[in-house]
Amino acid sequence: MTNRANESSQYIAKKITEILANGDEKSIEEVIRLLLTSDKVFIYGAGRSGLIGKAFAIRLVQLGLKVFFIGETTTPIVDDTDVALIISNTGETMSAIQTANIIRRVGAKVVVITSKKLSKLAHAGNVVVTLDPEPDDGTAALAPLGTLFEDSTLIFLDGIIAQIMEKRKETESKMRGRHAIWV
Predict the structure, then answer these.
(1) How far apart are CA 77 and CA 171, in angstroms?
(2) What residues have CB less than 8 Å from 67, skipping those under 6 apart?
(3) Segment 105-127, tens digit of pLDDT
(4) Which residues are registered as beta bridge partners of 83?
(5) CA separation for the pair 124, 131 (Å, rounded)
(6) What's the DSSP call for residue 85?
(7) Nearest to 12 by CA among 143, 114, 140
(8) At 175, which helix (H) or strand (E)?
(9) Residues 6+ away with beta carbon under 8 Å from 32
(10) Which end of the chain has the least Cβ crowding within 10 Å, N or C?
(11) Comparing C-alpha atoms, which of 70, 11, 58, 89 is closest to residue 157?
(12) Dihedral through CA 146, CA 147, CA 148, CA 151, nearest 10?
């Protein structure tokens, strides 16, 4: 018999595979196009979704893109040549919805990653990626709260990094040259 930690890890990996198997190729290509053609990339998420967004932002910076996390004191103003990627499991997080609406008002594009395609946040997006974990008997005990959405989002966004690397002809060694060195 496996211990609870192993059982949970295996369950999470299995569910993420199921969630990502339903990816919409057209939306993924549009997300990548917007990331590569916009002057600046802004990322937003609250709580754990924000942490996933920050991890993605680091990789985009290492790819040489101009990237900012909304809410940081050094974040510049968004304009109509930019894109914002907003992450929210429920799509009902008020700060995420307000951020999307403000960004749309200035004419920038909004990419939404959520589990709820009919949410207020999804309604505010130009492009919506839905990563919808269908709960089952194991979800609450083995992957509580938003674990499946958050982990799926992290893997999904890391997959996008690989695609951007290919399109920009980037290598890991070139990315390493942009990696922050904290001494």
Answers:
(1) 31
(2) 40, 41, 42, 43, 57, 60, 61
(3) 999 999 999 999 999 999 999 99
(4) 41, 109
(5) 17
(6) E
(7) 143
(8) helix 172-176
(9) 160, 163, 164, 167
(10) C
(11) 58
(12) 120
Name the residue among 71, 103, 97, 66 with its Cα closest to residue 84.
103
Q: pTM for this structure?
A: 0.93
The residues facing 69 across adjacent strands are: 43
Length of the chain counted residue by residue? 183
DSSP codes joined into one string, 99-145: HHHHHHHTT-EEEEEES-TTSHHHHH-SEEEE--PPP-TTHHHHS-T
How is the chain split into domains, by residue range? Answer: 4-169
Q: Which tokens sit at 183?
A: 């001494």
Q: For residue 12, which phi and psi values (nearest 5 degrees)?
A: -60, -45
45: β partners: 87
CA 65, distance to chain mean position in Å, is 16
Which residues are known to be catalytic? 150
* Structure tokens that stand for 83 in this block: 């894109």
pLDDT digits (tens, 9 = 90+) for 128-176: 999 998 877 767 888 888 899 999 999 999 999 999 999 999 988 898 8
Percentage of residues of the chain with pLDDT beyond 70: 97
Return the ∠ at Cα 132 (arms to 146 and 85), rounded to 5°: 80
